[in-house]
Amino acid sequence: MPTSDPIYYVEKVEIEADEENEEFEEITYDEDLSDSDADEDLETALRSMQQTLQTEIGVQEPIDIPKAVVSRRPEVVDDFIRNFLIRYKMTRTLDAFQREWYEFQTRGGAENDPELVPDCYVQNEDLENKVKFLHKEIEKMKRAVNKAGTQYIKMKKERDFHRMHHRRIVQEKEKLFTDIRRLKKHYESYEPALEELKNKYETAMREKMLTKIECQKNMSKINNLTTTLTNYENVRASAAESATLKDLDLEVIVQQQEKPDKTSHPKDSLIPVEAGSNPNANASLPVTCHLTKSGGYRVVESFKAHDLAVSNLALHPFRDVIATVSDDTTWKMWSVPEGELLLTGRGHTMWIGDCDFHPDGTKLATGSGDTSVKVWDFSEGECVHTFNDHSHPVWGVAWHHTGNFLASSSMDNTSKLFDLASERCRCTFRGHSDSVN
User: Fold this and answer.
1) H or E segment at 381?
2) Burial of 121 from C-beta contacts in 10 A (0-12 / 13-18 / 19+)
3) 61-91, pLDDT tens digit by residue?
4) What distance in Å separates the CA atoms of residue 295 and residue 385, rounded to the nearest whole number?
5) DSSP line for 270-326
6) Is the Cβ–Cβ distance between 333 and 318 less than 8 Å?
7) Euclidean distance between the first and the last CA atom of the chain, given in angstroms as a whole number
8) In 199-216, which positions are buried (b, 16+ CB within 10 angstroms) versus exposed (e)?
9) pLDDT confidence tier of residue 386, bands split at 50, 70 and 90
10) DSSP label of 260
């Protein structure tokens, strides 16, 4: 600062008690606005001239409105001291300064123009304020930067975590795909084994059924032999009467049958004469547990046997087995009352109308809408005979109790008798005018 600037001192002055109640007048400072008024008049005149020129030319050009300029008025020394004391909250010093300054003015010390604070002090104060403001801004920016850095680190960690999680999910997905492909191959390798086991199971069930059928057949033979021996003596006693019945039966057979073929087959079975008694006439059905108290029957088991309607069924002569035929061109054998499927036969091309078990229980005869009669052997598991002598669908089939002959009825108004030994039709019975059921 130059040496010509005045030096100021602050003195401590004590105020007497009689002066404390005196009223102080407020010191005002009139602002000199002459320069600013002149500037405002000049600016107004310039704007008026521009508007006049634009009106004469007829072109509306943008008007440049000058920005307001705030001119800072230098601060008076006493105001500077007051502001300084107020800023630092030095109230007692401020009161003492106010009293001494008032006394100084009353003595005429302030008649001259008040001295202004040099610019260096004002600039220093402004710079200090700016420095303090900048320090605050720097601290604020530091906090913001630290916060942004912390957030960035956090988001980076989250990104790494999600990336690692995504990679783990991708690895698990690939592992699952590999396991699925391996299981598919493993499952495909089991399919032949399952099919083989299924065939073995069906074969075992067939053999089991055939064994039981053979056992029942032997028991039936024993019972038949016993019955034959029992009735043998009665037959001998009534020999004359039996001879007469034999002659009558032969005449009836000759009238009903067609004339036999001139050429006989060497394997033809002898057509029996029904002169004896029915071996099953004295057979009695066992009392079943399915009877209700009222004497009627009740449903024990129900199961779905075929895809289409069931047209007929037949009971096995010895075992708890039934055979069913259906419009779906198949026949099936079931155990009752469990409803377990034992055998399935396929070979007819149309619906099957009827079926019947062989007397020994080892064969099954079926008649179908494809005009054929088939004989199925359980021991061989296939069709062993097929008779195509009918010209229309076959409605019914029935075995002779000897097991050598099979009778059929058809929509062609005839019935036929087939010989299993020679595998041909032995007789055709005509006389009906419509279908034979």
Assistant:
1) none
2) middle
3) 555 555 555 555 556 777 778 888 888 888 9
4) 43
5) PPPP--S--TTTT--PPPPTTB-TTS-B---------SS-EEEEEE-SSSSEEEEEE
6) no
7) 144
8) eeeeeeebeebbebbeeb
9) very high
10) P
Amino acid at the residue 347:
G
DSSP H stretches of helix in 22-118:
34-57, 77-87, 91-106
In 3D, which of 318, 312, 417, 317 has the Cα closest to residue 368? 312
Whether the link from the prior residue into 279 is cis, omega within 30° of 0, is no
Residue 122 has pLDDT above 90, yes or no: no
Q: Is 124 helix (H, G, I), strand (E, B) or coil?
A: helix
Quick one: which of 30, 24, 32, 31 has its CA closest to 105? 24
Q: Half-sphere exposure of 226 toward its Cβ, with a 13 Å CA cutoff?
A: 7
The pair of three-digit structure tokens given for residue 160, joined into one six-digit string: 């790494």
Q: Which among 358, 361, 371 has a CA at the least distance from the CA of 402?
A: 358
Pairing outcome for strands 394-399 and 424-430: unpaired
Residue 227: CB partners within 8 Å, gap ≥ 6? 279
Q: For residues 168 and 228, what is the distance between their CA atoms, to the nearest angstrom?
A: 86
Beta bridge partners of 356: 365
